[in-house]
Amino acid sequence: MHKGNSTGIRAALASAFFLGLAPIFGKQAIAAGLSPLAVVALRTSMAAGLLLLLVSLYKRSYLYIYPAGLLGCTLAGTINGLGSILYYMALGRLSASVGQLLYSLYPVFVAFWLILDRQPPSRMTITRIVLGSVAVILLTNRQGNHVDIIGVLLMLGAAALYALHLPINQRVLYDVPAPTVTLYTLIAMSIVVVPTYFLFDRQWPQTSVPWTPVIGLTIVTFLSRLSLFMGVKHIGGMQTAILGLGELLVTLITGHLWLHESLSLMQWLGAIGLSASLLLIAFDKSNLENRHNKGGWLKWLRPPDFPADIPWSSRD
After folding, report:
1. Which of 161, 37, 160 lies closest to 92 in space, CA to CA?
2. Sequence spans of domains, the chain
3. Rounded average pLDDT over 153-160
4. Is the separation of the CB atoms in 179 and 59 below 8 Å?
């Protein structure tokens, strides 16, 4: 196995593990009194501040980024920031397990965005979408009663936006180190979510702030984003999304052990169907994207002439 592929696979699996813990800590923080917007503002800004501090102290060369790359990170961070707001608003209405199962549809959305970026559709893609849609219907049924439809729509919107930011950052990662992309994407996310909290929420717990789940969420956000973009850099957005299916298992196990959540028989059938839908991506040849494709709707993110005085190697 190529060294870069091996590194990317390990990074993608690590990202799946940390992403699987995120809804658990997020649900704990919301249950302890923080509003969803407060949770997303705190975890994003604290993760961005932590990475900025570490880079400034130990690797200042990672602060460099060319204008097109900065624009790409800003666009991706803005999109993902909006998706994070939808995610934590949905998490306030759904259980962590059901929310994460719905969110795990994002690889299907990744396939759709890559199709727009000159990735041809296939019968397998259509089969996956149909199977995933049936699985969502099963997942949103709990003991004969439908779960909050607004929460479901919010979570699906979050999945679509999260998926969109991956191919955008993938273009930037052709030439820019993963820590640099992570830093500027998190900063852009913070610029979106923090003002949103102050403009539309400003709710704060009447008692003590639940710092333990907030700090836990900050750490897993920091580690998941860094490993996520490391995976995208080496094996591409689609394959990273496929391996990200592992976060489902992490969320279900931790949700059962920590939050004492359970799924009905119909929802377990939906979970199996959704897992099958996502795993079939591995057999969809149309999604084995050329990660260095110079065409497509995102080609403007790659500068025509790379700066000669770049302070880091494009392979970092």
Report:
1. 37
2. 3-202+212-297
3. 93
4. yes
